[in-house]
Design a protein that fits this description.
Elements: H1 14-42, H2 48-51, E1 58-62, E2 69-70, E3 77-79, E4 82-83, E5 92-96, E6 103-106, E7 115-118, E8 122-124
Parallel strand pairs: 1-5, 2-6, 5-7, 6-8
Antiparallel strand pairs: 1-3, 3-4
Length: 125
């Protein structure tokens, strides 16, 4: 007697087809999402510190690079190439220039300035 043996043929269910379609669609969306992120990031607004305008204020430069001192002492600062007459205040920009040796400019919470530029080997505390 000869029997016929049938192999079951896999028939995808409707839910399996839906999942395959969702998976394929999500993979197709990846490049579009990356392109969207890349283009929107390049058109973002610049940071506020780059666009903000400031009124002209005094600019003081540390007179003795490489030598530590006090932030509030007027003899430590140059203004327009001359010793400063007034200590730095909250409407003043200060520059601590580059030096060959480490130096520290010390202040306290009462010493407030508008902008600070710190060069190599300079430290503001």
């Amino acid at each position: 007697m000869c029997s016929t043996f049938y192999f079951p043929v896999w028939q995808p269910s409707l839910s399996a087809l839906r999942m395959a379609t969702v998976r394929t669609a999500s993979l197709l969306m990846v490049p579009q999402v990356l392109l969207f992120v890349a283009t929107t990031a390049t058109f973002a607004a610049p940071p506020a510190h780059e666009t903000e305008t400031w009124t002209n204020g005094r600019s003081l430069t540390w007179a003795r690079p490489g030598i530590s001192g006090d932030l509030g002492a007027t003899e430590n600062w140059l203004e327009d190439g001359h010793v400063a007459r007034v200590a730095p205040d909250k409407n003043c920009d200060i520059v601590l220039p580059v030096a060959d040796t480490l130096y520290t400019v010390s202040g306290d919470r009462n010493n407030q300035v508008r902008h600070v530029t710190v060069g190599k080997n300079a430290k503001l505390t």
